[in-house]
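Retro notes (design track)

What went well: tokenization of the new backbones is finally stable.
What didn't: we kept losing track of which sequence belonged to which structure.
Fix going forward: every design gets posted as structure first, then sequence, in one message. First example under the new rule, 235 residues:
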């Protein structure tokens, strides 16, 4: 049995080891396919579908999770593919705030997405969780990419403090029983913050600096816990 497969991507032939994803095979010949939920060091789950490509089937294939097969003839930027990506970006924009997601905003521009197309669409709103001295969780900016869950679990930390919560449109990232972060298994390693492609997870110090709080006060608050210096002085 052959250990390699040969296929065409955008008309160019490429031979790769069996099991190679379309995303990696394309990268080998210099063809870049856009990604959002995919991260090279985390298990891919094929959630956002921005990497979808056309292989002549009834439905498009998510390049980050689909293995190459012999004889495939893939188009990575056909009209349908581009239109699909544009719609994904427009729908993302209608549901959540992308202001602090620079890589996604670049795609919005590249694919000429109309950010007002679904202006009447329901937004996925969430409280902002400021429940620990290290990072803030603002799920109004969360695209449910699952990276934070993956890095907190089997891909790096084996801590399992985060998981999905809710169903359907209400699906969001949460903690067990909705506990505050200090009551979970979280060890505040910061891996989730580092893996988040949007501003949904943000270091507390960065968030306070952006609010114009004095750096000394920020250091004091994040070192000593939740109290402000003035509160402590007043007892
Ligand atoms: S919080 Fe960030 S990393 Fe986690 S699912 Fe949302 S966007 Fe992805
Ligand atoms: S990057 Fe492939 S599904 Fe999100």
């Amino acid at each position: 049995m052959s250990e390699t497969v040969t296929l065409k991507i955008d008309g160019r032939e490429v031979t790769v080891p069996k099991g190679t994803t379309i995303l990696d095979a394309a990268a080998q010949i210099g063809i870049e396919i856009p990604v959002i939920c995919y991260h090279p060091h985390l298990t891919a789950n094929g959630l956002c579908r921005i990497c979808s490509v056309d292989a002549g089937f009834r439905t498009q294939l998510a390049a980050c999770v689909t293995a190459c097969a012999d004889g495939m003839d893939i188009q990575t930027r056909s009209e349908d593919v581009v239109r699909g990506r544009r719609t994904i970006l427009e729908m993302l924009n209608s549901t959540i705030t992308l202001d602090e997601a620079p890589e996604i905003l670049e795609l919005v521009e590249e694919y000429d997405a109309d950010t007002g197309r679904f202006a009447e669409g329901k937004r996925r709103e969430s409280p902002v969780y400021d429940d620990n001295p290290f990072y803030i969780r603002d799920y109004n900016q969360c695209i449910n990419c699952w990276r934070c869950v993956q890095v907190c679990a089997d891909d790096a930390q084996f801590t399992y403090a985060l998981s999905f919560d809710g169903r359907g449109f209400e699906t969001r990232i949460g903690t067990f029983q909705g506990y505050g972060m200090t009551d979970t298994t979280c060890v505040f390693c910061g891996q989730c913050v580092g893996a988040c492609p949007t501003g949904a997870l943000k270091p507390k110090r960065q968030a306070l600096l952006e609010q114009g709080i004095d750096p000394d006060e920020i250091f004091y608050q994040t070192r000593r816990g939740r109290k402000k210096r003035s509160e402590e002085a007043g007892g």
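Added context from the reviewer: The mean pLDDT is 92.
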